[in-house]
Amino acid sequence: MPGFEDRLTVKWRAFPLEIINGRPAPRHIVDQEWPLVAVQEPLCPCRPFPHEEFLRTTLPAFEGYESAFAQDPAKARRFDLALRRGFFYEGRRIDEPEVVLAIAAEAGLDPAPIRADLKSSRRRERVMEDYRESMRLRDEGGLPMTSPTFILPSGEAIHNPYASPKRIEGGKLVEVLPPPCYGEAVYEGFRQILRRAAG
Fold first, then answer.
1. Does residue 148 have a cis peptide bond before it, meaning omega lies within 30 degrees of 0?
2. How far apart are CA 151 and CA 154, in angstroms?
3. Could you give the domains of the chain?
4. What predicted TM-score, i.e. pTM, was given to this entire model?
5. DSSP for 28-73?
6. pLDDT-based confidence at 1, cuts 50/70/90?
7. If you average pLDDT over each of 18-22, 38-42, 81-85, 195-199, which comes out highest?
8. Closest by alpha carbon to 62, among 110, 100, 103?
9. What does DSSP assign to residue 14?
10. Beta carbons within 10 angstroms of residue 62's beta carbon
11. 86, 100, 179, 185: which could join 164 in a potential S-S bond, CB 3.0 to 4.6 Å?
């Protein structure tokens, strides 16, 4: 990350909703995210997922990221962003290993070890460890289940302080309010969080 390359490494932890909820995220739930994205970050392009069949799983993406991080943390960050863009804007099927591998290659990673890891499910246990840790933090520490949540080296947990307030009724998003701030103020706020993390 600009200004933090030599001071901090951000490692995303898996928060596999399909494991937590016992089913893949359904289309009607994900489709409710678009208004939130538009309000939260107007510069972030998004499109509804174009395929008739929705994602069957996100585990290949989580496992691919774990493998990518082991290969090169900096390229893994680019890979993570490319996966998100691939799903939320480009309509790519990130539930398919071959698509995940193509995105890895585009991010400058060697897809061969990622392919081997996906085939063997070698990184699956690491994803499950993240899941179990998130449940432990919820059950023992009272940590709300929100994404993203930064866990600093000190153990301090910081939820997204710039999230748009929203109201959900009967499982449906019925209102989105403006976020507390926009644009550069948000970027600077996250830079301050990273400075705290870097010490």
1. yes
2. 8
3. 17-144 (1.10.472.60)
4. 0.90
5. HHHTTHHHHHHHH-TTS------SSSPPS-SHHHHHHHHHHHHH-H
6. low
7. 81-85
8. 100
9. P
10. 27
11. 179
